[in-house]
Specification:
Layout: H1 2-25, H2 33-40, E1 44-53, H3 73-79, E2 88-98, E3 104-107, H4 109-112, E4 117-121, E5 127-129, E6 131-136, E7 141-145, E8 156-157, E9 168-173, E10 181-192, E11 202-205, E12 217-220, E13 224-232, E14 240-244, H5 245-257, E15 264-265, E16 268-271, H6 275-280, E17 289-294, H7 299-303, E18 310-314, E19 317-318, H8 324-330, E20 337-344, E21 347-354, E22 356-357, E23 366-371, E24 376-380, H9 383-389, E25 397-402, H10 407-410, E26 418-422, E27 425-426, H11 430-438, E28 445-452, E29 455-462
Parallel strand pairs: 8-13, 16-23
Antiparallel strand pairs: 1-2, 1-4, 2-3, 3-7, 4-5, 6-7, 9-10, 9-12, 10-11, 11-14, 12-13, 13-14, 15-22, 16-17, 17-18, 18-19, 18-20, 20-21, 23-24, 24-25, 25-26, 26-27, 26-28, 28-29
């Protein structure tokens, strides 16, 4: 009897031990990359494009004199006008992957947009002419089509919501024109916001990604596409970014049927909840999106949303970070009534809102950054906003509001000023702005390079 008990105990301990090993090693054993590469390479394509660039006339201009005019300007324009240069061909390389046997291919918008000619090369060396079927500049995705006689090998689309940090991944693409290059690594982080657009939600990976990988697939260990390789950090190593494939899956039908994407719209501007703001609103943490502005005649205005409301949930989904709200609104079906949970004057309220179609002239629920240290609010500069303001720049941040008696007001900063640098650090997005300002402490000197109209100048102040 005793021997039977001991035997059962040994079996139980062995079971527990084996179970512990399985749990500890789950997801840490590298997959068979040889088999994966052999299986998946036929589904990945190399893309080369060309487009004609016409160069406008340029004039050699003298700087204005102290009176603001140049009496010799007509002379210089007449005799020193640069001759019209000939149009030139600009070529670029990228990657893509086949998503249907009849030749539909997914890639990045920036790989093919504006191209006069698109060539698609398969893993077996066959070349085809590519035709653009749909473009989405905001998400940086494009759908192209080739006409092949036979059914093509297809990449299976996975579930990017189910991925975990530390999972093995593999990228296949065309870096620096080196066709069918395979690299491997892990998922380094999820939900990265890098300032490239309103829907940033990138997967970060240390699988080598370089110029030419754009538009190529990021596979998981099961051989499913979980991301579209899109961005890299200039000069960085082991840092690449991929668009989660679930975001692409949500818009592929529209790209295929309409050639463009229709998104949901509320008509609000939001900013993050800082610790100071959370305290002032009586919040226990910094979760939520703070409404700073409501567009006239927008769905939000019709539903009664106001500046100062804090959106806590959208259709039952918690808003942990401000950037989550624009993404949720954008993928909501136009005409659908949703419920927004918000905090107003210390009380929770549930507001029904009917999501509208985003007007062509409107921007998404806009991310604003309010900074208590400087006393000003900035907004990421998009192409649409730059056009509205008559600005040539398409990157950076623009000042939208300056609080009276603030540090910003004291230095003469005005709404419309573009922040180019902070303490020598180039500012190209809200992310780089927040990072630069967050490192400034009380008593530190802060130096800003601003652009106002055609003038660029520095201001410097000591933080109080």
């Amino acid at each position: 009897m005793l021997n039977v008990r001991i035997l059962k105990l040994l079996i139980f301990l062995l079971f527990i031990t084996l179970g512990s090993v399985d749990v500890a090693t789950a997801g840490t054993v590298p997959p068979d990359f040889v088999a994966l590469a052999r299986q998946l390479k036929p589904t990945v394509v190399n893309i080369s494009t060309s487009k004609t660039i016409s160069s406008p006339k340029r004039f050699y201009r003298r700087p204005p004199n102290q009176f603001g005019v140049d009496p010799f300007e007509d002379f210089f324009e007449r005799f020193f006008e640069e001759p019209q240069r000939r149009p030139r061909k600009e070529r670029s390389l990228g990657s893509g992957f086949i998503i249907s046997g009849d030749g539909y291919i997914l890639t990045n918008n920036h790989v093919v947009a504006g191209a006069d000619e698109i060539k698609v090369k398969l893993a077996n060396g066959q070349e085809f002419k590519g035709e653009i079927k749909g473009l989405d500049e905001k998400l940086d995705l494009a759908l192209i089509k080739i006409e092949a006689k036979n059914q093509l090998a297809v990449s299976k689309l996975g579930d990017s919501d189910a991925i975990e940090i530390g999972e093995w991944v593999m990228a296949i693409g065309n870096p620096f024109g080196l066709e069918q290059t395979v690299t491997a690594g892990i998922i380094s982080a999820k939900g990265r916001v890098i300032g490239s657009g309103p829907y940033d939600d990138f997967i970060q990976t240390d699988a080598s990604i370089n110029p030419g990988n754009s538009g190529g697939p990021l596979f998981n260990a099961s051989g499913e596409v979980i991301g579209i390789n899109t961005a890299i950090v200039a000069g960085g190593q082991g840092i690449g970014f991929a668009i989660p494939v679930n975001m692409a899956k949500a818009i592929i039908p529209q790209l295929r049927e309409k050639g463009k994407v229709t998104r949901g719209w509320l008509g609000i501007s939001v900013q993050p909840i800082t610790p100071e703001l959370a305290q002032s609103f009586g919040l226990a943490d910094e979760k939520g999106a703070l409404v700073t502005d409501v567009s006239k005649d927008s769905p939000a205005e019709k539903a009664g949303l106001k500046s100062g409301d804090i959106v806590l949930e959208f259709e039952g989904k918690s808003i942990n970070e401000m950037n989550e709200l624009p993404r949720l609104v954008a993928v909501t079906e136009v005409g659908k009534q949703v419920t927004i949970k918000l905090l107003r004057n210390g009380k929770i309220d549930m507001i029904p809102v009917t999501v509208s179609r985003m007007p062509d002239s409107a921007s998404e629920e806009t991310a604003l950054h309010g900074n208590d240290k400087l006393g000003m609010t900035v907004r990421e500069l998009t192409k649409e906003l730059a056009a509205q303001l008559g600005l040539k720049e398409g990157k950076g941040v623009v000042v939208t509001n300056v609080q009276p008696d603030s540090i910003a007001a004291g230095t003469g900063i005005r709404p419309g000023d573009i922040v180019r640098e902070i303490n020598g650090v180039k500012i190209e997005s809200l992310t780089s702005y927040e990072k630069a300002v967050s490192g400034v402490r009380k008593g530190n000197l802060i130096r800003l390079l601003l652009k106002r109209g055609e003038n660029t100048f520095y201001v410097a102040v000591k933080m109080e």
